Amino acid sequence: MTNLQKFSLFILILSFSTIFGIPYEFSGMLSGWCQYIDNSDDSNTTIFGFRGIPSLEIPISSHIQFEASTNLYTSFPPNDFQQIKKVTELKPYRWWIRYSTDQLEGRIGLQQINFGPCKILRPLMWFDQLDPKDPLHLTEGIHGIRFRYDFQNNANIWFWSLYGNKDVKGWEYIPTNKKTPEFGGRIQHPFYNGEFAFTLHHRKISDNVNQTINEGEENRIALDGIWDIGIGIWLESSTSQFLFQNGSQHFHSAHSLGMDYTLPIRNGLYILTEHLYTTNGTELTHQVETFKISGITTTYPFGIFDQFSFFSFYNWTSSSTIHYVSWQRNLDMLSLYLSGYWNSKDTTLLETSSSVEMVGSSGILFMIIYNF
Fold this sequence. Notes:
Layout: H1 3-19, E1 25-38, E2 44-59, E3 64-76, H2 83-87, E4 89-100, E5 104-111, E6 142-150, E7 156-162, E8 182-190, E9 194-209, E10 212-228, E11 232-244, E12 249-263, E13 269-283, E14 286-302, E15 306-315, E16 320-330, E17 334-343, E18 362-371
Antiparallel strand pairs: 1-2, 1-18, 2-3, 3-4, 4-5, 5-6, 6-7, 7-8, 8-9, 9-10, 10-11, 11-12, 12-13, 13-14, 14-15, 15-16, 16-17, 17-18
């Protein structure tokens, strides 16, 4: 089914719900922006853009709910409206059906799966690309089925199986074999004054790069925890083992430590910092460090409508920096967003599917967001 056919199905479902009096909730988000980009070669660019994400929710019963949403996106320079045809995208954003009780939730379809306590430098960014700088909080969905059961002592257990996701997800750089399912699970349990979790995932991999084929399997294992000891402190540690059909193997590990605290300065100055380092190697116990990166973010609310945020990242390997500052005003259904960024060298380590692209050496973005 093509994306246009899926969008037509979305309109058809909405029409039937209206005609036959089926209860539903129609909501969504519209955003428009203007971005000025200053490139490193002394050139500059101005880009206008628009995004719409209409969403339809249908309560089938007290325990079963259906949701569908689409993502319409376009951007263009002000002097080239023909560019709209080249970059306009229309595709499903979420399509799922959910069964839920007080303690159990099961969901099947195109959905979002994310977990772990890290906020900005996330080893457990396995299935999403959420960017804390993105005012729209966008991330591509994945096709699969997921179950979660919450125990009365606040422990929970997850199971999932994914299928039909041809693109790489999260930190992946080798695609999944599209003809095979991938599956995993997670156990999270209270531990002292916080929580501790253990996560597993398995998939078949298949990639054709530069006429060389890498086929085999990947096994992931992760530990994470979060505690309140006066300040908030958390950690994430993830290791992947790649077993290739030619008999070789490769290990990739990512570890992150973070903490946060709110200083009692007037309305409260929130400070969060995380440090991430990754390693690679053919043996688990003899890996070579590839890069280290540290990040800090501060947030300060000016009253109940306005919020100021600042992000700064330092790559210890390349000695490069990235800085990002933003102001946001939130009204009942409307939000105004103004941000600026500048970087010294390289931003590739922070590339995500965010609606805010930090291209060029610096830039300014103004965005209007309407939620209905």
